[in-house]
Amino acid sequence: MLDSIPGSSGYLESYPERRFTYFSNKYVLGLTVVAGIGGLLFGYDTGVISGALLYIKDDFEEVKNSSFLQETIVSMAQVGAIIGAVFGGWINDTFGRKKATLFADVIFVAGSVVMAAAPDPYVLIFGRLLVGLGIGVASVTAPVYISEASPTEVRGGLVSTNVLMITGGQFLSYLVNLAFTEVPGTWRWMLGVSAVPAIVQFIAMLFLPESPRWLYMKGEKAKAVAVLSNIYDPFRLEDEVDGLASAAEEELSRKKASVWDVFGNRERRHAFLVGGGLQAFQQFVGINTVMYYSPTIVQMAGFHSNQLALLLSLIVAGLNAAGTVVGIYLIDHMGRRPLAMMSLGGVFASLIILSLSFFLQSTGALAVVGLALYIIFFSPGMGPVPWTVNSEIYPQAYRGICGGMAATVNWISNVVVSESFLSIADAAGTGTTFLILAGISLLAFVFVAVCLPETKGLAFEEVEEIWRKRARGNSSNTRSLLQGGNSRQNDFKDTRNREDDEDIS
Description:
With 505 residues, the protein is mostly helical. The protein has helices spanning 9-14, 26-59, 61-64, 67-95, 97-117, 121-149, 155-179, 186-192, 195-205, 212-217, 221-229, 234-252, 259-264, 266-284, 287-300, 306-330, 336-359, 364-378, 385-390, 399-428, 430-451, 460-471, 478-482, 485-497.
């Protein structure tokens, strides 16, 4: 059995009474919600600018007369997020998950104040860049922080809570846009109010601990045990600490993590290609096309009223948040891989419906149905799965670096999709554009089916073993891995001792 491996399925089968549920530990849930405020800021800022831009154009004539300035104001936050994600992994691994979160909050508050007080569009653009830097760091930090403090059996649901906060932030941004439409200084309030949750998170994080795994790896063993004692009962605590001690011993024997080492080692390279591939496909199947341009799509389909377009877009955002709640339950019951495949199958069908609605020039109702179905299928699966998988598939020493690299892939893909949708739609037609996205979703389905292993309920060490076996050319699945017993544990030790000897360029 795997009793000596903390949180493994064998351990939980032996002691089912110690199995956690999503709501069974208020300490972990509270930590998750506070860390997830970073996701709320992520979602709010990506959604609020669509409404704020209408009023920015009224205040600044040069913005009204320049499509380039409008695009720059919208996209500069994404540019900042790319930079923040690039350095976010290093910040996480060097200073810890807690300090990385505090840093992101400070940057975000500064950016919000700059935007709200901007005397001209160029200062506003600088504020958007600052906010983007905070979003980028937060997008790396929150999933890793939550993952490392979560029991394995509910890790997927807890990490997915951060995605719920993202979709909730997008929904909140639509409500705030509506609330401030009649207030003097409209767009300044819309953009400046985002400082409030960042201040709340900063204060709350001061009272929360550092990630126990990061503490243990940095030699702060007593602090790590104190954090874990708030999560586990004394019986399971001993196994969790033993697992951390074993992992720490292995990490000490490894050379310092670097970006180049990710690609110079087969198993790490395999893990990153899967994690980064998931993040790219999340964007390239068109989610932010739907979220950023849903009012435009609705108007393209024949509903020309601005108010009706905004109302239908608010419904789409609400469905996105509701679907993520469903995903929190399904990800630890159905598993990551089947949930992603089911999600992508529905996304493909929805994009075909959207494409047909434009090819047939039917009533706008068919396009609205396609949009709604797209969100219903995307939000519980391809919304949370990429973030959850990337929080659990990398070795401890590379979790920050690889998480940052994968988040960077996500943000770059986000920029490519959001900046190209309208241009492609103008050049090739809206129906053809959705047909292209449907083809990409089919490729994503094949990618998940072939490349993504199931990680539901596995300890971090067990996930590492999956990549070792793949790197050696062994086609092992999760079931056979979990049935390996004590002989698997011995092989696990021997293989880790040889890991750096197997680096290849």
